[in-house]
Amino acid sequence: MDRRIYHLVAFITVAIWGSTFVFTKMLLLNGLSPAQIFTLRFLIAYVLLLGYELLFRPAEFRLLSHTLKDEALMVALGITGGSVYFLAENAAMLYTTATNTSLIVCSCPLFAMLLVALVYRDSERFSKIQVFGSVLACMGMAVVVLNGHFVLHLSPLGDTLAFCACLCWAVYSLLMKWATERYSTLFITRKVFFWGLLTILPYYIIKSGFPSLNTMMSAEVLWNILFLGVVASMLCFLIWNWVISKLGAVVATNWVYLNPITTIIFAAWLLNEQITSWFLLGTCLILAGMYLCDRKT
């Protein structure tokens, strides 16, 4: 298959993920907490994937991984791509600004590149043009997020939580590289949802409670949570894990730089927020950087 198809699919996936910030904000305004939103969207995604496998692929269905070590890998994927990532990212917003959080979390492609280079020293080498492209894309992302206001408000706790989320996604990308060599994308994604749900449960010991049935059944909440569960979680995680297996952890993760762009576009569309010249400049830098990052020489 043409490599450009993989990039197109990655772009669409990130575009959908960029929209989730807007839909999540709508749910927050309706009284749901970040942990409740995460639990509901992962629960919907897991049940749908499980049902699909049992109904249409019963011969391929397996509950556990081949070995205990591989099952531990699935637990790590559920934590780094699920429970801890989402909790750290959402909690960071309570202690630091949205700008700081976006800048730190969306810089994860650089850390993914560093991790892959450290782990795969002999087999995975990056050219100078690829490194420059990743840095250029990161600069473009910073321009988009800062939007001409080059002032950061440091908050040790909030920034640390955002950095934790950043590292989680970088580690998730690296672990996915190993997992896709052993298991199908469908199996891996279902396990990510399962262990993500299981590892979020201790949080409810600290903060118990769930939305009322009346809240859940309101049209705005129901449609938003279904979009997040079916499209942004089930379909997007399936597709993203497949893209990583085709493009590699670093090239695929570089598409995360586009996340702020799609968020701003959706915010302008649904929330009437303004698009500035800084946004256009940052977008150009990101696209140029991603083009260079995909080149081998």
Describe what this molecule looks like in 3D.
- This protein is mainly alpha-helical and 297 residues long.
- 77% of the residues lie in helices and 0% in strands.
- The protein contains 14 helices and no strands.
- It has helices at 3-29, 34-56, 68-95, 98-105, 108-119, 128-146, 156-179, 185-200, 203-206, 213-217, 219-247, 249-253, 259-270, 277-293.
- Helix 2 (34-56) packs antiparallel against helix 3 (68-95), helix 2 (34-56) packs across helix 11 (219-247) and helix 3 (68-95) runs antiparallel to helix 7.
- The protein starts with a helix and ends with a helix.
- The model has no long low-confidence stretch (mean pLDDT 83).
- The computed structural class is mainly alpha
Query: What series of H and E elements makes up the topology?
Result: HHHHHHHHHHHHHH
* Helical run tally: 14
Biggest pleated sheet: none
Given as residue ranges, the uncertain stretches (5+ residues, pLDDT < 50) are none
Quickly list its features.
77% helix; 297 residues; mainly alpha
Draw up the topology in text.
Blueprint: H1 3-29, H2 34-56, H3 68-95, H4 98-105, H5 108-119, H6 128-146, H7 156-179, H8 185-200, H9 203-206, H10 213-217, H11 219-247, H12 249-253, H13 259-270, H14 277-293
Summarize it:
The protein is mostly helical and 297 residues long. It contains 14 helices and no strands. The longest helix has 29 residues.
